[in-house]
Amino acid sequence: MLEFLRSGGWLMLPILACSVISLAIIIERSLALRRSVVTPAGLSADIDRAITQGRLDVDRIAALRRGSALGHVLAAGLATAQSDPGRVQEAVEDAGRHVIHGLERYLNALGTIAATTPLLGLLGTVIGMIKVFAAITTSGVGDPQVLAGGIYEALITTAAGLSIGIPSLMFHRYFRGRINELTVEIEQQALRLLDLLRQRNLR
Predict the structure, then answer these.
(1) What does the pLDDT read at residue 144?
(2) In this predicted model, what pLDDT tens digit does every residue of 9-19 receive, in sequence order?
(3) Angle at 30 between CA 25 and CA 33, to 5 degrees
(4) Helix, strand, coil fractions of the chain, as percent rounded to 5
């Protein structure tokens, strides 16, 4: 492995750093974007029962806010409904924007890595070919070992850059799709809560 990194030249260091960061982001987002973490099953039903039975107090709303992204949005609406019923929808929308921003955390970095690492590999290719032509200029084509060394370096950096960039791009798009699905689900649950609160206020 060390020989592989050494053969690729100094550009293997930023490519290796990108691989470590990309892997860390992929693991962290895979855990953070689980449906059971963002939109726990049965949460809306529990809230509906609590509202109907009048069991919602400040401590329960605070626990709901800390529990999940969906709970944070719903808790914002419930807390505002107790203090200022006219601003419930605005509070839910503000909380929703904050939650979505949190779900998208680190995705810009992952997208940057997906775009940058192939370019680093391409730069390594260019540098390797420059070395090849410099060797040809200096000693002609009589030393195949010198020529092979430059081409080898070019191929290693290209392969390393693509090996990091392709999975990073795939996971970036996957996470974007997952966030879109979770956003729609959070919006649907928030609308259900608004309808329920509106019905109770009409009684």
Answers:
(1) 66
(2) 778 889 999 99
(3) 115
(4) 90, 0, 10
